[in-house]
Amino acid sequence: MRNSSLNLFMVFIYCFLQSFSFRWVFLWEKGYQETDAVVSSVTTKVKGVTLTNTSLLGARIWDVADYVIPPQGENTVFVMTNAILTLNQSQGRCPELPDDQTKCEVDNNCVPGYVSTHSSGIQTGKCVPYNSSIKTCEVFAWCPVEDDYHIPKPAFLREAENFTLLVKNNIWYRKFNFSKRNILPTINSTYLKNCIYDAQTDPFCPIFRLGKIVEAAGQDFQEMAVEGGVMALQINWDCNLDRAASHCVPKYSFRRLDNKDSAHTVSPGYNFRFAKYYKNSDGTDSRTLVKAYGIRFDIMVFGKAGKFDVIPTMINIGSGLALFGVATVLCDIFVLYCMKKKYYYREKKYKYVEDYELGADET
């Protein structure tokens, strides 16, 4: 009775291991398929117009040529949402912004030729009035120097959340000579002009509203627009090419890439500077300096395709057969060392004999 129970138990363990390995290798991991990584290209197009009315600029229209910088990037697009503008700069001498290093009382407090990493220009050695109550060292620089101590709140281009982003993605699996794009064959021009991506109603629309991208990542667009940030638009192309090509479709997801929490408060967001130059009537050069804050959208494409192939199938079948030996070893270990009646089973498995030397007469 005990022997039959032991045999049934070992058969159960044996079958369980074989079933598990078969399901894992062939059904879950699809070990019968040859696989290939995706090769991808991405192009983007942003659309949207907004109006601002400020004391500095008055009423002004902003379109794509104003807020998308640069016009094209490699798998990325930057949309300016906030800005600090310094108008009519020209090269000359002017007071530096006041701080612990630039405030002065007399000329001896300023060092001719001195420049630091935070300087707006090169000191001339003179101490000049910055305003009615403060003196700072004079610098040779683009004047007037930029004052970026106060970031506009709310964001300068807060209506940018209603702008749209068209993502055109072409993918190719080289091993299988399979290519496709995210504008699916079922999408016509009429639908493309009117659709906006929605995970429930329009999961294959390639046009995204910027505010919805940020919201889908669990962030607040108006808060993020003030100091900028980096967002990821992820496109997943996991395809089973043993099925029809129509089943190979993109899946979109969104997340914020830069840290935004209470533990990371130093230099938050994303910003950079650029200038627009022009020549005055007297032949001198002037510029408008822009410190641009905004959201950079990184389009990340990843995926894997699989298709039946004899070679990986045979390799994995051979690996499965090798587990027969492993199953026997595991059953022995469990029965001989883990069960309550391990001593009884050990007696049945091993036969002990006495070791003695044969006598000379018996030889």
TrEMBL record:
Pfam families with a match to the protein in the record: P2X_receptor (PF00864)
S-S bridge residues: 94-143, 104-127, 110-137, 195-205, 239-248
Binding site for ATP: 45-47, 164, 271-273, 291
Domain of life: Eukaryota
Gene3D superfamilies: atp-gated p2x4 ion channel (1.10.287.940), atp-gated p2x4 ion channel domain (2.60.490.10)
InterPro entries: P2X4_purnocptor (IPR003047), P2X_extracellular_dom_sf (IPR027309), P2X_purnocptor (IPR001429), P2X_receptor (IPR059116)
Keywords assigned by UniProt, alphabetized: ATP-binding, Cell membrane, Disulfide bond, Glycoprotein, Ion channel, Ion transport, Ligand-gated ion channel, Lysosome, Membrane, Nucleotide-binding, Receptor, Transmembrane, Transmembrane helix, Transport
GO MF annotation, one: ATP binding
This protein's record includes keyword Zinc: no
Record-annotated membrane-spanning stretches: 7-26, 317-339
Gene Ontology BP annotations: calcium ion transmembrane transport; response to ATP
Record localization: Cell membrane; Lysosome membrane; Membrane
Reactions the enzyme catalyzes: K(+)(in) = K(+)(out); Na(+)(in) = Na(+)(out); Ca(2+)(in) = Ca(2+)(out)
Glycosylation sites noted in the Swiss-Prot or TrEMBL record: 162
Similarity section: Belongs to the P2X receptor family.
Function noted in UniProt: Receptor for ATP that acts as a ligand-gated ion channel.
Record-given protein name: P2X purinoceptor
Designated gene of the protein: P2RX4
